[in-house]
């Protein structure tokens, strides 16, 4: 093959891909326990699930996701070591929602040009977050797409698998009248609503490398605050004998906002009013809302506004669950109570994303 018709001439650098693998191998291997067979570089990852024979009725849970346009900010300020945690948060924290313990994850990175150090930084973040959630990173793919993506553009996605005993699976069928809704604090924007964030900043002529006191320094650095990981703490809370059966449902507050995601895990006919005064949205949400000339309430269907996860728990167990979460470093509080009493639910959010669920609305004013 002539030089001008080689793969390299077409913009694909296989040698750079090999270097990227070498740079990430140690981080990936650190997530491997005795159940992972083989090393990095195989066509498929192998995970020994013979331990599932001890389950009465094991259910596999799976989830896949990306981090959306948050990657544009990482690219703009050339900081790539936290976006991997965002990916794990978006994928693995969906698995814990059904009560499943994560087993393994794979990742996919598409880019215009392989820069080994950049790819290694992304995968390093994924691996660290996988270790924090007890998830093995068993494989992945880096694909170079010259001509389709810009040289410094990339996108990331991942998929994970977990397992839960059938009679321990969480969901709407467990929710009862009188259950308490416990909110768990987010670390910031997490990975949703960044198209709105980028639009607001663009309209104000603010760059990601700008330093503004409202953001406590660099704008991009503040916006890249990584997603809080809930899986590790929740696995331990769910496994606490003193809290057995206390948690009936979990809801990950991602795309769709606060009310819609909680409504997805409530049965039809059940409703909740979330008390805004029970928490104070972090400053990043207030700053962005002020820049947009809008209210915090208007973004409740886009941003998490300080709540990253909900737990619907038995009414007499809320204090124990909150104490356990607080001990795990997750600020938590009572945000509402489930009811089945006859109630006019016009104006409530009812279900989301194809789920015909319960009804949720936010009431009152946010705490200062």
Q: Count of DSSP helices?
A: 10
**Category by helix and strand content:** alpha+beta
What is the CA-CA span between the terminal residues?
68 Å
CATH topology of the largest domain, by name, is Phosphoribosyl-aminoimidazole Synthetase, Chain A, domain 2
Strand proportion, as a percent range, falls in 25-35%
| Estimated radius of gyration | 22 Å
Q: How would you spell out the order of helices and strands?
A: HEEEHHEHEEEHEEHHEHEHEHEEE
Strand order of the largest sheet: 10-12-7-13-11-15-14
Q: Architecture of the largest domain in CATH?
A: Alpha-Beta Complex
Number of domains: 2
Q: Could you name the ranges where pLDDT drops below 50 across 5 or more consecutive residues?
A: none
Q: Percent helix among the residues?
A: 25-40%
List how many beta strands DSSP finds.
15
Instruction: Please name the fourth-level CATH homologous superfamily of the largest domain.
Output: PurM-like C-terminal domain
Mean pLDDT: 92
Instruction: Provide the CATH top-level class of the largest domain.
Output: Alpha Beta
Main pleated-sheet profile: 7 strands, mixed
Query: Which descriptor suits the 3D outline?
Result: globular
